[in-house]
Amino acid sequence: MDDARLLHELEPTVESLVERHYSKTKEWFPHRLVPWSRARDFDDEEIWVVPDDAPPAPVRSALFVNLLTEDNLPYYSMEIHRAFGGDGAWGEWARRWTAEEGRHSIVIRDYLTVTRALDPVELERARMAQVSGGIVPHPVSAMRGMIYVTMQELATVISHLNTGKLLTDPAGYEVMKRVSVDENFHYLFYRDITSAAIELDPSGFVLALEPEVVGFAMPGVGIPNFDQHAKVIANAGVYDFALHHDKILQPVVLRHWKLEELTGLTDEAEQARERILKYITRLGKVATRLKNKRAREAEEAKQLEAV
C-alpha cells in the first residue's frame, strides 16, 4: 500500500487517537517543577566546576544526551510533518506533539541551570552543534516512520525515567518523571496507529519493520561525542541492548503487534519475518549475558562493601 492511501485510510483512526490523547493528558507547567530558590547568577568569567551535590558522571552523561535529544525537536517535527502530512487529523497531531515536546527541553534545561548539574557553556556549545547539524533518522516511508517513532518514543520514556531514578535529588526525579509521562502518551499514540496500519497492510508492515528493528539507533545520534556518552549510559543501565530487547522488542513487536501471529503475508514478508525473529532471538541472548554480567558485578561490589 502506498503512503498516500495508507495515510488516508488511517485518518479516522488518527482522529480517534487524538481525541483519546486529549482526554488522557493533563496540562502541566515547566516552571512549577524547577527549584528556582536554588539558583544564583553566573558571573561573566565564571568557570564551572562540578558541584559537591552533582549527580555522578554517568548520570550527567544521560542528562546531557536526554536534553540534547529534546533540543533537536525542530528537525524531528519536520520529519513528522514530512512523513505524515500537515493537514487534517495527521496535521493536528503533528502540531500538538510538537507543542508538548517543546516543554521537555525547557524544564530539563531550567532544572540543570539552577542546580548547575552540567557545565552550561559546554551544554550550549553542544546544543549549537546538535541543532546546526540537524541529524535525525529519516524513514523512507510512512509505515517505517510509524514503526520508528513508536520505538523511539518508548526508548525515550525508558531513558528519561531511568535517568530520573538515578538522581538522588527529588526535584530532578520529578522533572524526568513528568517528561517520561508525556513521552509515554506519545508512544501509545504511535504504537496504536501502527497497529491499525498492520491491519491494512500486514506484509508492508513486516517489510518496513525489518530495517527499523535491525538498524535502530538510540535517540541522540548526532550529539557531540555521542558514542562515548552512549557507552557510559549503557554501562549505567540507563539504556542498553538488554533494555531494548526486554522493554521494546518483546512487549511491542512480539506481544502487542503480534509479529509471529500475522497471517496472509507475501513470501517476501514471510522471509523478512523469519529474519526479524532470528535477530530478536540473538539480541535476547546478548541481553541475557549483559544482565548476568551486571548481576555478578553488583554482587562483587556488595561483597567489597562488606569487607
Number of domains: 1
For the secondary structure, the number of strands is 0
Q: Count up the helices.
A: 11
Order of helices and strands: HHHHHHHHHHH
Average predicted confidence as pLDDT: 94
Largest sheet: none
- Give the amount of beta strand, in percent: under 5%
Description:
Helix 1 packs across helix 4, helix 1 packs antiparallel against helix 7 and helix 2 packs across helix 9. The protein is an all-alpha fold. Helix content is 74%, strand content 0%. The chain has one domain: Ribonucleotide Reductase, subunit A (Orthogonal Bundle).
Structure described in brief:
The chain is an all-alpha fold and 307 residues long. The protein has helices at 3-24, 57-71, 73-84, 88-115, 120-133, 142-166, 170-200, 202-214, 226-235, 241-256, 267-306.
